[in-house]
Amino acid sequence: MRVYKHVLILELVGSFTFDVILILFRPVLLWPMRAAITTGILGGQPYSVFIVFGAALSGEAMIVTIQVIQFVYRASATYDNSHWIRRMLTKNVSHVYYCYFIMFSVLICIHLAPVLTNIDDPMKSQALFLADFPALKPLVCEHPFLTGYHPEVSNFTIDAILYYGMVMGSSTPFVCILAIVFFVSRMKLMKTTETQKTYTVHLMLFRALVAQNVFMFVFLALPLTVFVYCLYFEVLWGSYIATLSLVVISFHIIACCLSILWFIVPYRLFVRKCFRKYCKIATTVSCVVESKIAPSG
């Protein structure tokens, strides 16, 4: 539990970062084009669309990285202390961070490749979109930095990252099912080899992990898969579905927090204790302030 809380914190940081990116840029998608406008406080700049695309891919890389590490950590914890993966991950917090940053560095290079290799004049892409869709002219007048990745100026890496997204999204349900089957088999074995107290702790964490996997599929993998498919196939009505997908994704951190607090009892009790302590302090301060401002006599 001492090390595992760092894994959970990294998971929440990744989800929170992704939500913050969407809030700050607030992209509005323009299907069937691979274009968008940014209406957030960091939008309204010539390269805002390219920046938000890279930032969103970076946030997604953070989430994928910590999900893999969380699975490996929980799997290693079901083995005995002599197993090398358990000794590496569950005994030293720094090893978790080392693994995280190494894997994240690899994924970030893959995810940012289409962004870094497609930095082009945004106005050139906008002119090409206007030539294809003249009806965009009023929107361009209102949002002069409308741009995106036009097929004539973008290279194959854009399609490659979309292929990657479709494969990752489509395979997530099967990976989650296989992971649950694996943990069920490990839990059955642990029931006969571990003490009741240890088994109860692992059962609690297993239930939390199942809930997190379900929420990850519903609030992350499924909407991202829909988003990528709509973008790749340039679905005419894809803007509505893709925008709704981004809204659903923003609920992932809330669902993740609730599953952690609901199933992991020590964390729930700690948060409850902190909340009660805060309420008690707030009540005491309020009473002191009221007593000082009350008229005397």
Automatic annotation (TrEMBL):
PANTHER family named among the record's database cross-references: SERPENTINE RECEPTOR, CLASS H-RELATED
Domain of life: Eukaryota
InterPro entries on file: 7TM_GPCR_serpentine_rcpt_Srh
Protein biosynthesis keyword on record: no
Pfam families: 7TM_GPCR_Srh
Record-annotated membrane-spanning stretches: 7-29, 49-75, 96-116, 161-184, 205-229, 241-267
Protein name listed in UniProt: Serpentine Receptor, class H
Swiss-Prot/TrEMBL keywords: Membrane, Transmembrane, Transmembrane helix
UniProt keyword Transmembrane helix, yes or no: yes
